[in-house]
Write a structure and sequence with these properties.
about 325 residues; alpha+beta; Thrombin, subunit H; 7-stranded mixed β-sheet; 6-stranded antiparallel beta barrel; 20 strands
Length: about 325
């Protein structure tokens, strides 16, 4: 693990920066081709496979799983970066928990333990998987969905270097080795076609569909945060995750909060002042977050940091491509 690069390496972006294009003007006479469908792969889609995956993830293996290594600059040299497509704003409210409560005025946080409780403690969790023969970790979030079985995370937390990860599980409410709400095995992994084809950092977005556990779906057990797409930029947001690189150790839920800004350098992402490190990748960014209830509306994920700006976290814009991943995931049978 390269400690200087907590998430996706800025070096991996540098070679592709020349491919950034200015926003084009209105083109009334140009036919817009439909976006390609999300890329997806079956995971542990049989009962026997799920038993093997759940048996594999012992407490010792989870504690030893490091944050996912950042891709090297060689991979970045092949990247071309596109701009997320923006469409009609769309929102689904949180589910599975009371939405009442008084929103508290939050002090800005750049990376402190979350101690207020609420739904976010249950819906946010650690993600564990095997990639290229070794174990690794990220973060993820349970969201409201038709199948009650969708986890949102980062693209590099389901696929990197040309291969989907295996042994993929979600542990909501992870707390210093404890798994109070169980371990949930993925039956299907999905990501944007842009991340699938060339690891375009603007589309570092993914979803997992997890199998029911003891006859109950994920949202039945932990609830689900709301989701929103094609929203205005530069809003107040909260970011959550389980950073596992120093000075953190992956044992506790950490949060950041503040007003987002537009990346001024090499991506089209949101930026947020945040000290979280590797392992927080895939953790949720939320709009309209209520500190009293712990409920909000997910609108991005922890994605990457620049080497020259370690106190800033960046997350992809949830546009049409992110919405397509979510819609495909929520319409997928969990078994």
């Amino acid at each position: 693990m390269h400690r200087k690069v907590a998430l996706i390496s800025a070096l991996a972006l540098a070679a592709g920066s020349a491919a950034l294009l200015p926003a084009s003007g209105a083109q009334a006479h140009v036919r817009v081709r439909p976006e390609p469908a999300p890329a997806q792969k079956a995971a542990a889609d049989s009962a026997s496979e799920r038993r093997q995956v759940l048996t594999y993830w012992t407490e010792r293996r989870m504690e030893a799983a490091p944050p996912l290594d950042a891709p090297g600059p060689e991979a970045g040299a092949k990247k071309t970066m596109a701009e997320p497509a923006e469409g009609t704003p769309w929102t689904a409210p949180p589910s599975g928990a009371s939405k009442n409560g008084v929103a508290l005025q939050a002090a800005r946080s750049s990376g402190t333990p979350w101690t207020n409780g609420g739904a976010v403690v249950k819906t946010t969790g650690r993600v564990f998987f095997t990639t290229q023969g070794r174990n690794a970790s990220c973060s993820g979030s349970a969201v409201t969905s038709a199948n009650k079985s969708v986890v949102l995370t980062a693209g590099h937390c389901v696929k990197m270097n040309g291969a989907f990860h295996t042994n993929w599980v979600f542990v909501p409410g992870y707390d210093n080795g404890k798994r109070p709400f169980g371990t949930w095995a993925a039956t299907r992994l999905l990501t944007t076609p842009q991340w699938n084809a060339r690891e375009d950092i603007n589309f570092d977005i993914a979803a997992a569909v997890v199998a029911p556990l003891q006859g109950k779906t994920l949202v039945d057990v932990v609830g689900g945060q709301g989701v929103a797409f094609n929203q205005p930029r530069r809003q107040q947001m909260y970011a959550f995750g389980y950073p596992a690189a120093a000075p953190y150790d992956g044992s506790k839920l950490i949060h950041c909060s503040g007003r987002t800004f537009d990346d001024f350098a090499m991506s089209k992402d949101h930026g947020l002042t945040c000290n979280m490190t590797g392992g927080s990748s895939g953790g949720p960014w939320m709009l309209n977050f209520n500190e009293s209830t712990g409920l909000g509306t997910q609108n991005s994920v922890n994605s990457f940091k620049y080497n020259f700006a370690p106190n800033w976290m960046f997350g992809p814009y949830f546009g049409n491509e992110a919405q397509a991943v979510y819609q495909t995931a929520q319409s997928t049978n969990a078994l």
